[in-house]
Amino acid sequence: MIEFRDVHKWFGDLHVLKGIRLRVAAGEVLVVCGPSGSGKSTLIRTINRLEPIQKGELIVDGMKVHDPRTPMTKLRAEIGFVFQQFNLYPHMTALENVTLAPIKVRRMPRREAEALGKEVLAKVGLADKLHQYPAQLSGGQQQRVAIARGLCMHPKIMLFDEPTSALDPEMINEVLEVMRALAREGMTMIVVTHEMGFAREVAHRVAFMDYGELIEIAPPEEFFARPQSERTRLFLSKILTH
Amino acid sequence: MWGIYLEQLLQSLPFFLKGLWMTVAVSGLSLLLGTAVGFLWGIVRASRRRILKALIGAWVDVIRGTPFLVQIFILFFILPEFGVHLEAFPAAVIALSNLAACFICEIVSSGIESVPHGQREAAVSSGLNGYQQLRHVILPQALRVILPPLVGQYVLLIKDSSVVSAIGVMDVTRAGWLTVQRIPQGILVFGLVGLLYFAICYPLIQISGALEKRLGRSSRR
Q1: What is the DSSP letter of B34?
Q2: Domains and CATH numbers, chain B
Q3: N or C: which end of chain A has fewer CB within 10 A?
């Protein structure tokens, strides 16, 4: 579904992705962890070309993302993206937030889109918040609306960029719960997170990134019990002790 | 003494009202055109089209850095030497529209840039095309920032329109100039001229203030 072939990216002189090789199969849940600045956010942002890459090939759902001629709007409609800061549209209600793209991009009739929006918002536990504006919702609720916004496009892939990092601790679980449910349904997901409990429980594979390199990637049992690289061990010892 | 002048002034009131109509026509038309062009330029200026951006930026600087009187003189008196002949009214509308567009361009582009970058990223990610991003996500949020100074700018431009009297457009200001030659009581004549401008501008000042309050108050994330 997603394939990185020796992908490089630079921000000016800064080499942020150094030859990434990675395949993610349909239905797979991949958790990416690593220290801040390791390039993990950049990695998933290249998948829908929020960040263009400079070298290598990146194939997503059969389309060449690395090719500047590839029309991206069509591919982006197939990829849900959830941001750390939610990025809900503040001038729209929850329902309007989730129906905008189905109406405008999928050309779905408004009534149909609203029925879909209500159904998906109910699925993330927000049936009673349809007509609230983002500012009237808690962080956890906003992030669930953001996930619903992605799901309303019936995406083939969902990308999560530190979805719980901006949340108060008591709200983290309501968001993770929605993500667990998604994973159980077989959604292809890449999740950048430090929630190692989530990784252990839900991920098919866990990847560790540092300094723009994919250091290690393994199924969670193996990844946590027998990390191969010294850097991975060091990182895990830091984040698992507290 | 004043009584006679006041009576004469009242007799010329229709003349002033005609001038007022001309002021309204020139500024109204120019604000309409200037707003349309200004939004277009402002959108380009907030985009990533480098060359177009730089061109518009340079033009805006030239227009903002030179007196309006000089601009309108060049348009009306100098261009004919190069074979471009314009009547006073179209010359006035073109000059004032351009001035309006330049100021509005700056207001619009800074309004667009005030929208958090994540908004565009969210819109891009959901597959909206450039126009849809602008129309449904960016502009509605930018408008809250744009509207109050835009209406304030309208007031300034309406007052600037008095400069078009210099090329013979029969607006309120020119009506004043002509009348004061018959009625030597300048304070009365230009008092009336000022009053007529104030009558148009005051409601706009009120609207701008109200917009500022309302849009500033309503909740944002």
Answers
A1: H
A2: 7-219 (1.10.3720.10)
A3: C
Could you read off the pLDDT of B173-190 as tens digits, one per residue?
999 999 988 888 888 889
How many of the other CB atoms lie within 10 Å of CB of B53? 16
Cβ distance of B136 and A104 shorter than 8 Å: yes
B125 at interface of A, judged by CB pairs closer than 8 A: yes
Q: What is the pLDDT of residues B21-79, one digit of tens each?
A: 999 999 999 999 999 999 999 999 999 899 999 999 999 999 999 999 999 999 999 98
Q: Tokens 């983290």 belong to which residue?
A: A172
Mutation target for B interface from A47, A75, A89, A138: give the one with most B CBs within 10 A. Answer: A89
For residue A50, the distance in angstroms to the closest alpha carbon of chain B comes to 7
Contact B127 A100 (CB under 8 A): no
Asked if residue B109 lies in contact with residue B45, where contact means CB atoms within 8 angstroms, the answer is yes
pTM of the entire structure? 0.87
Q: What residue type is assigned to position B203 of the chain?
A: P
Given a contact cutoff of 8 angstroms between Cβ atoms, the answer to whether A82 and B122 are in contact is: no
Q: Which residue stretches of chain A have pLDDT < 50?
A: none
Q: Give the span between the Cα atoms of A174 and A181, in whole angstroms.
A: 11
Token pair in block for residue A47? 């998948």
- Say yes or no: B218 contacts chain A, CB-CB below 8 A: no
